[in-house]
Design goal:
The structure is a single chain. The chain is mainly beta. It has one domain: Lipoxygenase-1 (Sandwich), CATH 2.60.60.20. It has 1 helix and 9 strands. Strands 2, 3, 4, 6 and 9 form a 5-stranded antiparallel β-sheet that branches. The protein has a 4-stranded antiparallel β-sheet with strand order 5-1-7-8, with helices on one face. Strand 2 and strand 3 form a beta hairpin. It is elongated and about 40 Å long.
């Protein structure tokens, strides 16, 4: 029952983050994109990640993230929804990032791009925005609108 309560909390956070039922909205994938919850972790940051709606904006590359705040940073966390094509053009995905501490006011995110390309497309990814929330607090939107990766080598970018 405790796990169900935490899952429902994740759904509530997604609702608070987007102002609508994120799982019912167009271009938002199913609820299995929110990572399984770990009872040893105290804080679950919910991310809403939007890929831009421009030609070749999507990527099949591996994407990781670190969230930083006034009290510290998360570990590097892979963003992947098994069985889904993450980061396709004009899609929005929800992810959870776990932390053992309350990061405080969110100050930055660092995106890591593994540089891997598919045989059909370049590895570059046009990231439009990232929204970060911990419950109803520590909300921050990063309007990024830039290309990340694409040269065939791993890269990273930090956004404040």
């Amino acid at each position: 029952m405790k796990k169900i309560s935490k899952i429902m909390t994740a759904f509530g956070i997604a609702f608070a983050l987007t102002g609508t039922s994120a799982f019912a909205a167009e271009n938002v994938q199913s609820s299995d994109q929110v990572s399984p919850l770990n009872n040893n972790v105290n804080y679950y940051y919910i991310l809403e990640i939007k890929t831009a709606d421009v030609s070749k904006a999507g990527t099949d590359s591996g994407i990781d993230i670190v969230i930083s705040g006034a009290n510290g940073s998360t570990l590097i966390t892979p963003l992947d929804s098994p069985g889904h094509n993450d980061f396709e053009r004009n899609t929005t995905h929800l992810y959870s990032v776990q932390s053992q501490i309350d990061l405080g006011a969110i100050s930055s995110i660092t995106i890591y791009h593994d540089g891997a390309a598919s045989i059909f497309e370049d590895a570059a990814w046009r990231l439009e925005s990232v929204k970060v929330a911990l419950g109803g607090t520590h909300k921050k939107t990063f309007n990024i609108n830039t290309w990340i990766g694409g040269n065939g080598t791993p890269s990273s970018a930090t956004f404040n």
